[in-house]
Design a protein that fits this description.
The chain is of the alpha+beta class. It has four helices and seven strands, in the order βαααββββββα. It is elongated, with a radius of gyration of 20 Å.
Length: 162
């Protein structure tokens, strides 16, 4: 079997699913700062109980603002919208080419992908820290297509990108 490209089923991710992935990645990258800040507030609250109010203000005012910032700064980025819109993806030696339901096409070259994260349900192609493209495993038309993608398209293009 010597294919020049693989085409997926048409699929669409929900914005909630995409944002959930974005939030998990952000929390994974910043958990140390959050834990340090929490421990600092606990220590200060022992000295002065008024710092409990500061912690509550941060929890209910600042943290929701951070979540809003993540949504507007990253989830609405044009490269991120590609994951959310309904599309078919053609995978070839040049990269990923998305054809949307309205006929518009956009491509992601292999060189733009900084690293790839594997989850239990999908591939996450990172274009930067918080900008990524999601390709679900179940979007492939067959297991043979998925295996061919892993061996012949993904492996040669990501040798130094893990």
């Amino acid at each position: 079997m010597n294919k020049t490209h693989i085409e997926t089923f048409s699929y669409q991710l929900s914005p909630q699913y995409y944002f959930n992935r974005l939030l998990k990645i952000w929390l994974h990258n910043n958990w140390g700062w959050l834990l340090s800040f929490f421990l600092l507030l606990v220590g200060l609250s022992i000295q002065n109980p008024l710092f409990i109010y500061v912690g509550l203000i941060i929890l209910f005012l600042v943290f929701p603002m951070i979540i809003s910032y993540l949504w507007f700064a990253y989830a609405l980025h044009p490269d991120c919208r590609m994951s959310i819109l309904s599309k078919t993806v053609e995978i070839n030696k040049n990269g990923l080419s998305c054809t949307f339901d309205d006929g518009r096409t956009e491509s992601i070259a292999w060189e733009r992908i900084s690293h790839i994260r594997y989850t239990s349900t999908d591939f996450i192609f990172h274009l930067s820290n918080y900008i990524f493209f999601i390709l679900p495993y179940n979007s492939f038309k067959s297991n043979d297509d998925l295996e061919y993608f892993l061996k012949n398209f993904l492996a040669p293009n990501i040798q130094n990108k893990k």
